[in-house]
Amino acid sequence: MASLPSALLWLIEYLDNNLTEEVRGEVPRNRPTVFVMVTTAGGDDRTSVTAAPQLLVESWADTILNAEALARKVDGLVGAAHGVTIDGVYCKGARRFGLPYESPVPESDAARYRQLVSLTFRRTE
Question: What is the spatial distance between Cα 70 and Cα 81, in angstroms, rounded to a whole number?
């Protein structure tokens, strides 16, 4: 049986399908003013058909208020991920470890909010 695809790619695709802001897996070389970045942050593989990875979601913007607003939008989407299927991978659940929090970017005029989430997946195909 095939293993589950990358949770990172799943969440990037899900957010990209539901946001007008750019969603990436790394800070772009030419960093836009507003974007969302998703990176892996641990978790576990439960079986060959289920997994519960943890992901760090960062919402970047020009001001702290705009970063917070974007983070709240992302938080709502993560909460609504339960029941979504993308490319044969079903999100069985979404857990948020607290609310998004301010995370200043040293020596930068960018504002950033972060949030740790865990998504539980199951293959449907």
Answer: 17
